[in-house]
Design goal:
It contains one helix and twelve strands. By secondary structure, the chain is mainly beta.
């Protein structure tokens, strides 16, 4: 965990100086899709969140620093988690934040590690009556979150694993729900890089 915190502060402190001294300016945009496996104290056997898995998604835009080994920018990620046993338990998690990636090699086969820090929301779906009215309103909770990432890339394609670690979230349902819920995402993605 300390390595990821150091990486974030390195990006924040060194980034502006690297941008000013860079000869060639590059930006990359990535999208990824994957499987989300829920975890956390709220998902345990006696936990309040009855979810089995779901669909993960992510997008980011990163500025390349220090010879393309270090990249920093903005990220959006999330997952839709549901229960296989019942159609009632479904949640959407989304996170907006800042992201830093460090590549071990500047080109070719690219192992990488990164960290996203941001604001996460957890919400239940809204159910309507078919006439524009709302039978069950959406309920939302929020917390600060971090999302460490590791992966490998070749060309524009990559495979990665990340884990969204939110703080404690409380949803005001008919039975109050407490505990944290995160997810492990196993993802396939594509990153497109272009010169400015």
């Amino acid at each position: 965990m300390k390595i990821f915190i150091k990486l974030f502060f390195t990006i924040a402190l060194v980034g502006p100086f690297s941008i000013m001294n860079a000869q060639d300016h590059q930006i990359s945009v990535a999208v990824q899709l994957g499987y989300a496996l829920p975890g956390g104290s709220g998902v345990a056997e006696d936990g309040a969140y009855d979810v089995d898995g779901g669909f993960a998604y992510h997008a980011d835009i990163l500025y390349h620093l220090m010879g393309s080994k270090l990249r920093a920018g903005l990220a959006y990620s999330g997952a839709i988690l549901a229960s296989v046993d019942s159609g009632i338990d479904a949640y959407e998690m989304t996170m907006y934040g800042v992201k830093g990636l460090y590549y071990l090699n500047p080109e070719g086969f690219l192992p990488f590690a990164g960290l996203s820090l941001g604001f996460m929301t957890l919400s239940t779906p809204e159910f309507g009556d078919g006439n524009g009215g709302v039978l069950v309103p959406a309920i939302t909770g929020s917390a600060l979150a971090i999302q460490p990432t590791v992966g490998i890339a070749f060309g524009g394609f990559y495979i990665s694993a990340d884990y969204l670690l939110p703080g404690n979230i409380e949803l005001e349902l008919s039975t109050p729900v407490e505990g944290n819920i995160g997810y492990l995402g196993i993802n396939l993605g594509y990153r497109y890089t272009f010169d400015l």
